[in-house]
Write a structure and sequence with these properties.
- The complex is a heterodimer.
- Chain A is α+β, with helices and mostly antiparallel strands.
- In chain A, about 40% of the residues lie in helices and about 15% in strands.
- Chain A is built from nine helices and six strands.
- In chain A, the strands form two sheets. Chain A has a four-stranded antiparallel beta sheet, with helices on both faces. A two-stranded antiparallel sheet of chain A has the order 1-2.
- Chain A starts with a helix and ends in a 9-residue tail after the last helix.
- Chain B is built from nine helices and no strands.
- The N and C termini of chain B lie far apart (about 60 Å).
- By secondary structure, chain B is mainly α.
- In chain B, helix 1 crosses helix 3, helix 4 packs across helix 6 and helix 7 crosses helix 9.
- Chain B is globular, with a radius of gyration of 17 Å.
- Classes of the chains: A alpha+beta, B mainly alpha.
Chain lengths: ~240, ~170
């Protein structure tokens, strides 16, 4: 029984039903060149994805963003005073009722990243810190002021990973939460924060936007790290501890 | 009234799709400026008829389709000039930013710019954007068998262009 080249392609693309799949697999076992052909299809997909991955990091032009913002008042990004208007919990006492952070993760990340092409990149579904953001997360202690990127608080998450809140200042400021995975900082939450003067919160440097705090609240195991804890974690390259 | 499909909600989701929409528009138009114009028009169109989006359908497929329709309309209004193959350089310009870092990947994008449009859009939707065959066929308004054969021909054409020896294409 013969299989067509299109079937091999569909097999490589995971588009066959169980019966046809079995047929292809049988043919692959019988004929090594068929197996190689499937590999070729898979490699071609990887090649194309790699070639086009970087385009996702490019900033979207303002005219397109403006079109999206136009018409009925609606937030394209999460402006934190809108999301949370009650009084600010301070850094040491942010324990208030946790709200699901999942919405934020879905909405925040992805919405703002085009503004941040130098600081953030996509890898598959993940969003990773890079450039000055990655350096700041790895090297700065909380409150250190190193220009564009500033780290708020650091803590051990329930997963055992170290996480840190951060703030990005500049043209389109944002804030978020990053957690260490292997050698990378994974951006779990990213929210747009209003420009200075538009928000009552911006003047207090160490404040973390409520939307980010909600995510912290959901993730944190224990208390935020103090300076000694941060220094030790940094010395250990933020390697994950045992899960709690 | 419409609790799940609020304009705000759709807007946010479209915002998250913008980088992919641009990327797809660039493979269609092979020109970054055209691509941005097309995406901008597509966003306008999508917002104007966002109530037509079926919540059970993938928003990315729906948006890709609008992008493509905008481009088709644009080509028509240009008297179909755009269908004439752009010189290869136009394809290479599209990814300039990419090339600086990944010189060896340049040939992928210029090869894409050289294959016939109907194959290119099939390859782009399935291999670059990751749509299942069924979704890609819906975006292109073609039966799934047609999609499959365009995809196969497109892949073969790309393979021939990207082959290390590359002799035949020179």
């Amino acid at each position: 029984m013969s299989v067509t080249d299109e079937m091999l392609m569909a097999y490589a693309d995971d588009e066959l039903d169980a019966g046809a799949r079995a047929q292809v697999e049988q043919a692959m076992r019988a004929d090594r060149s068929i197996e190689q052909r499937v590999t070729q299809f898979r490699e071609q997909r990887r090649l194309l994805q790699a070639a086009y991955a970087a385009e996702l990091d490019e900033p979207v032009p303002e005219k397109v963003l403006a079109t999206l913002r136009a018409a009925p008042a609606a937030a394209v990004v999460v402006d934190f005073p809108r999301a949370e208007t009650r009084s600010r919990p301070r850094r040491a006492s942010f324990r208030y009722t946790a709200l699901a952070a999942s919405i934020l993760v879905a909405v925040g990340v992805g919405v703002i990243m085009w503004q941040r092409s130098l600081l953030i990149r996509h890898v598959g579904d993940a969003v990773l810190a890079r450039g000055a953001l990655a350096r700041g997360l790895s090297e700065q202690l909380s409150g250190d002021d190193a220009g564009r990127v500033r780290v708020g608080l650091s803590f051990l998450a329930k997963s055992g990973a170290y996480c840190r809140t951060f703030e990005i200042r500049g043209g389109s400021p944002s804030a978020g939460l990053a957690c260490r995975h292997g050698e990378q900082w994974n951006i779990d939450v990213l929210v747009h924060t209003p420009n200075e003067g538009e928000s009552p919160y911006r003047t207090a440097g160490t404040d973390v936007p409520p939307d980010v705090l909600k995510a912290v609240e959901a993730e944190i195991a224990g208390e935020p790290l103090d300076r000694a804890g941060e220094t030790a974690a940094r010395a250990a390259h933020w390697r994950a501890a045992e899960p709690h | 009234m419409n609790t799940t499909g609020t304009p705000e909600n759709v807007r946010e989701q479209i915002a998250a799709l913008l980088p992919r929409l641009r990327r797809f528009a660039r493979t269609l138009t092979r020109n970054p400026h055209d691509a941005d114009d097309v995406v901008q028009m597509a966003v306008e169109r999508a917002l104007a008829k966002s109530e037509q989006w079926r919540r059970d359908a993938r928003l990315d497929g729906w948006m890709f389709k609008i992008v493509r329709n905008v481009w088709i309309d644009e080509l028509r209004s240009r008297g179909r000039q755009g269908r004439i193959f752009a010189p290869p350089e136009a394809g290479e310009n599209v990814g300039d930013a990419v090339m600086e870092r990944e010189g060896d990947l340049m040939s992928v994008q210029s090869a894409m710019a050289r294959i016939p449009e109907e194959q290119r859009e099939a390859v782009s939707l399935v291999l670059v954007e990751g749509l299942p065959y069924k979704e890609a066929a819906e975006v292109l308004d073609i039966p799934i068998g047609t999609l499959t054969s365009r995809l196969a021909r497109g892949r073969e054409a790309l393979r021939a262009l990207l082959e290390p020896s590359g002799g035949a294409s020179a």
